Amino acid sequence: MSSADPQPSTADDPIANLPLLELRDGLSEVVDSDPALEDTVEAFRSGSGPVAVDAERASGYRYSHRAYLVQLRREGSGSALVDPIPFGDLSALGDAIVDTEWIIHAANQDLACLAEVGMVPREVFDTELAGRLLGYPKVGLASLVSEVLGYRMRKEHSAADWSTRPLPAPWLVYAALDVEMLIELRNAIEQELRREGKWEWAEQEFAAILDAPPREPKPDPWRRTSGMHRVRNRRSLAVVRALWEARDQIAESADISPGRILPDAAIVEAASAMPVDRDTLQRLTAFKGRGAHRHMRTWWEAVDHARRLPESQLPKQGPRYDGPPPARAWADRDPDAAARLSAARAAVAEIAEAHRLPTENLLAPDTIRRLAWSPPAEVNLEVVTAFLRDHHARPWQIGLTAEVLTDAMTSEAASLD
């Protein structure tokens, strides 16, 4: 912004006028040696109450999703910033706090990388998920801290490359602040959950986080290439697949984010242009960058391989999926199913609104689609309850939705007779 530009006013911005959150105990040294880790383990073992836990990854910079910094805070223990890279395994630290509740914001994002270093909780409190159950419109950590506790948080280093060593002091302050107020936030949110009769819901949701099976790799991950909608035929899809897989191998080997080796735009441009030789490929606009040139031989070999594939080995036009087709196609393919889906969605949305919940947190949209597309042969409350249970709905969700879904299925079926 130039000096001539008007400065934005904060008079009408309540968040801008909140006090800035600061570290109460100052910035501690990064734990990166065996003696320091031993002291940290003992400090957190002797602390009291739940422990706030966070982890920083290098998304967008590295191929792996490993943790490059682990932050903790506990009453009587203070805060700690632990560098997991020198150790590889932090199971001693995990064991020291395993018998207490771990407070994690957006636990699904951090549990996998924490498990990689040997830190696996037995009990969690997810402040983001709790915020959703309470109907907060914004559930990012900074938003909840400002709304619930009245502090403004720094968020300027959220997209930093946390694999950088040494980590700059301002980044470390930002990281330490992420656990500074988690315990207070957790306690305030629990009070709200209890007041609104949602505490048991939260307990079931937190248990489900830990009980969830490991995520299965999605089939055909290359189909998530940005810009795929511009790829029109199976031969071009083969080029996308070949370039994506070649890039993925290089990225994994070098532990570099795939997009930093070859952008998605380059993959889609090559698939659309279908170059006939290496010179034509490297003249494409998206292949003129230094990163693309470094592996030009690999890119051309991938494109040439896709160009020569027999028709029988070309990928299918649409992705593989074991569930119902996209809902937008239901009206043409199965009008009865489309009517059931409309009735079920309306019923669930009404309950969600009444309880100030996001619809997707009341019941997974995929579960509703599956029920509407292929309902049981006999639809009654017992059968629908079993269906929801088989699709991992929690008891509180079943209690709120099973009856209305049964009514939606049966009333819609009656209207079609």
From TrEMBL:
Pfam families: DNA_pol_A_exo1 (PF01612), DNA_pol_A_exoN (PF18305), HRDC (PF00570). Coiled coil: none annotated. CDD domains: RNaseD_exo (cd06142). Gene3D superfamilies: HRDC domain, Ribonuclease H-like superfamily/Ribonuclease H. Signal peptide: none annotated. SMART domains: 35EXOc, HRDC. Residues 233-313 form the HRDC domain. PANTHER family: RIBONUCLEASE D (PTHR47649:SF1). This is Ribonuclease D. It comes from Kribbella hippodromi.
